[in-house]
Amino acid sequence: MKILGIIPARYASTRFPGKPLADINGKTMIECVYERAKMSESLCDVLVATDDTRIYDCVKSFGGQAVMTSSELPNGTARCEQAVKIFTGYNDTASELPNKTERAEKNFAGIDAVINIQGDEPLLDPLMIDEVAELLRDNYCVTLCSELVDDFANPNVVKVVLSRENFALYFSRSLIPYKRNKSDLPIYQHIGIYGYSVDFLRKYVSLPATPLSDAESLEQLKILEHDYKIRVKITDCKNESVGVDTPEDLERVRGIMRCRNSNT
To answer: Which domains does the chain possess?
Structure first.
């Protein structure tokens, strides 16, 4: 299976503008994420998908690959879909070819799946990328979670509820499930990394917007609202990643990385 890693990176963020270029002990955040992604053994290549020339130029300056995508795209998944088209030289006329294999090869140069790696996760464990890649062998849409032990009220920490077979039932910025009765039921934190088959990625961008996804500002809810499934794995890795949503998060990441570097 040929899997392309894509890191969506926008400059304009309502909570933290310009964060992909934020300095983390001498490197930009986007370079830190790119380096972590390149450590994965499951990806055929890694690509930054951006809508800003400053990020594009930065990625090129450290030897990374980047493509410019539209600034009008609604979310990171849509940015991934456009990026894989640009990267592979997608040809719409290939849809007229009768043979499915021939269509896929002409459209996406043999790319079978895409892993969407969040551009604000500079501490992401590369083994998590490999976990997502393994899930993609039998599923069209996958992601990860880990047990949450604190920070339950933080809306930037997204929670997920799972079915008995580990498919997502719902994602929320609120605490779910609500334990009305005393229970040892675990609370799971969603880890913001997604894997999609190329066919499902194309399907996703064709789906209309949905009310729950808009209300929670969580793009993955659109998948559930259209009755598609998301396979979720409880990661085997220790989840030490910190999503950078605020300048305070950035300071926390800097401290963790300084500590790691001093111990090596």
So the answer is: 3-142+191-208+230-259 (3.90.550.10)
